[in-house]
Amino acid sequence: MPWTTIEVEKQDKFIITDDSQNGRMISYKDALYEAMDQSLARDSRVFVMGEGVDDPGGVFGTTKGLHEKYGRDRVFDTPIAENSLTGIAAGAAMAGLRPVFVHSRMDFLLLSLDQLVNHAAKWSYMTGGKVSVPLVVRTVSARGWGSGAQHSQCLQGMLMNAPGLKIAAPATPYDAKGLLISSIIDNNPVLFVEHRWLYKTMGNVRDTLYSIPFGKGVVRRVGKDVTIVAVSYMLVEALKAAEKLQAQNISAEVIDLRTIKPIDEDIVFESLAKTGRLIITDTGWKTGGVAAEIAAIVAEKDVNLLKKPVVRVCCPDIPTPAGDLQEKAFYPDSETICTKAIELMK
Amino acid sequence: MENERLIELYKIMQTIRSVERKIEEEYKNDEMKTPIHLSIGQEAIAAGVCIHLRKEDYLFGTHRSHAQYIAKGGDIKQMIAELYLRKTGCTSGRGGSMHLMAPDIGIFGSTAIVGGGLPLGTGTALASRIQKNDRVTAVFFGDGAADEGTFHESLNFASLKKLPVIYVCENNFYAINSRQKERQTGDNICKIAQGYGIPAYQIDGNDVLKVSEYAGNAIEKCRKGEGPVLLECISYRWKGHIGTVDDLGVGYRPQEEYDYWVSKCPIKWYKEYLKNRNLLNEPLEKSIHEDIDKVIKDAFEFAVNSPKPQPEELLDFVYAD
Per the database record, which ranges form the Transketolase-like pyrimidine-binding domain (chain A) (predicted)? Predict the structure, then answer.
């Protein structure tokens, strides 16, 4: 069994209630699969490519069997050439198709930055709006079980620095499906950030096609003392932390940004106006990342809302260690968030 | 090839040469505030390839894309307006000289990143295959791009999937001032393509008839679904890498080398060829030049009288609707 599966199987089936209470309860992984399946069925311009999309595992189950259903012209394996494959997908997008290119590890994305940042993200601008690139790049980040420095990275913060790109980072099954569909129908290149530890997360998901707007966050838990802005998998840790904090009479409001480019700034400020305390937690690194950007937005636009300095709960600026004791020290979790929240309340 | 097409090739080459000479002449006035890479000396390659492309066929160009844009039928008014970075330019003043494009005639862009167009053109060719149409893609690149990973990755993928793409290498021996022999083992880019199972030919890129013959066959093969072809066209740029300088002398290109290639001028040779076959005479030559001069005069007038993009339009086009 692949190591990531072992680690993911250890995760509990964390349930996140959503605004779609009438849907079935399914996993994040199955929600992604459903978005892929329904998008391929709905639109003949959609096709899926990437290393292993047609293997028996099907990118952890999210593309499993799709090549049999839609044919190998529309769901196909690729050479290990991330940069050119990104450009090839972008070229196909320019010609009117809607490619979904999948990296089973986000680390591989770094090989493709020339075509993603120099080309795909700039094409609309450089052509004066004449050529658009409706490309989706799916990336899966992992964590734990000795993944080490090159199989665990969460690089979304780095990519926020690329104009022309949109970035989605869904944390719930409902959002995974809706935002993947939104990304596919969007006329711009979208980086779609998935986290392997979310794959077992359960939630209500409608069986129909639906989309979720970019730049619209959601309050996952209402509170009044401290605001926790969470990105991707850190939403799970934030919600666990909020539950623990409740026992200590600290009321935490948890915000899920859902997309980090664009960012829903209003939802952050509305919450801060109530709480005056801000914790930002991201799966990526602390320096120059998502949390740094949100902290900067708050400092720039309404610093007077803050009763205490901003706290960032992110990974420290070192490569991911492989050993288990060091891994535990490296990754922030619900305990880290709780400790910081308690300090903020002093 | 019928006589009309032979003359058409001549007109295209002369148009490229004349437009480039006019740009060179006007550049010193510092109104074209964009880095230019002139195609003088390399006209036969773009002309010989593009004469076989249909309007809907795709083309991707390089930083040195003026010739490719003109040969594919790009509007010269919009091109010159783009060089003057005006709103009426082919990319509304957002791209400049290195990003000429015209999607209505299949030019989906030119890139300033060496080798950057190779995957994109391979991608439009993939789209042709998925959409089951017979549109062919021509990707232009220089000998420098063969240094890049994208060259090898794209060729492998196109060969694997039998994509309808013609890779056109404009080998002018130099990547800026670095000679090919200092950068590559061997001097035969087409042999690399053959290693990927792609039919590839090294030809005289200053012989427009040779280029046209090979390109015609390659494009026909692509259209029939028989997979990619690479043409390594040997040529020489008369001007330096960038701007209007010559890059001649110590540390740069040797004068003798330059003189040799100027003596092999693709237009001079072709003009003699047409005259010897009684296809070109003085009155026709005069009329061709009058037409070209008018096009150029109109284009420059149009450009300098066009408005510039305004500060309040700064955020336009970053995202598509």
Answer: 26-201
